[in-house]
Design a protein that fits this description.
Length: about 55
C-alpha cells in the first residue's frame, strides 16, 4: 500500500471510530472506540512523517 493510501485509510477509520463512539450506548464501549480512533490518529502522524521523508532509491 502507498503511504498516501495508508493516510486516507487511517483518516477514514479514525472518523468511523469517532462516529461509533458518538453512537455507543455505554461508557466502556465509547472508550474502546475513542482508543481505536486515537490509535488511528497516531498511525496518521507516523504515515505523514513517512510521506514527507525523502525517498532513498
Amino acid at each position: 500500500m502507498h503511504v498516501i493510501d495508508d493516510i486516507d485509510y487511517f483518516r477514514r477509520r479514525a472518523a468511523q471510530e469517532h462516529e461509533a463512539a458518538r453512537h455507543a450506548r455505554g461508557g466502556p464501549i465509547r472508550r474502546v472506540h475513542l482508543d481505536l480512533a486515537a490509535r488511528y490518529a497516531a498511525r496518521i502522524a507516523e504515515a505523514e512523517v513517512l510521506a514527507a521523508a525523502p525517498r532513498m532509491i
